[in-house]
Amino acid sequence: MKIEARAEIAWHYGDPKRAEAIAQALEVDNAGLPEGLKKSLNVLTQWEDGDVITKVKYSGEIETLIKALDDLVFSIKIAEDVTEKV
User: Record's superkingdom (predicted)?
Assistant: First the structure.
């Protein structure tokens, strides 16, 4: 099923330096999207104060969007784990 979707996901950390580190880690991951997916998926992650905000625009099969969002959450978890230990 083909869909058009927009989403904004916010994670609240309360620590501006940690939020910046996590957002920068996600942007590196977002830059590595396969060329075919870049045409249908637009992901922008930024930080503001102690929050990380990711905006997603997508056009295509719903299964691909679900996989992309799952990857985003997994990447956040890894960045959280790393920044928690520093």
Answer: Archaea
pLDDT (average), residues 72-78: 93
- The pair of three-digit structure tokens given for residue 60, joined into one six-digit string: 């295509």
Range of the domain at 45: 2-85
User: What's the number of domains the chain is made of?
Assistant: 1
Between CA 22 and CA 81 the distance in angstroms is 10
Identify the CATH number of the domain in which residue 68 sits: 3.30.310.50
Phi and psi at residue 52, to the nearest 5°: -110, 125
32-68 tens-digit pLDDT = 667 777 678 888 999 999 999 999 999 999 999 999 8
- Report strand pairing: 51-61 vs 2-12: antiparallel
The SS3 assignment for 32 reads coil
> CA nearest 22: which of 73, 70, 61?
73
In whole angstroms, give the CA distance from residue 54 to residue 36. 21
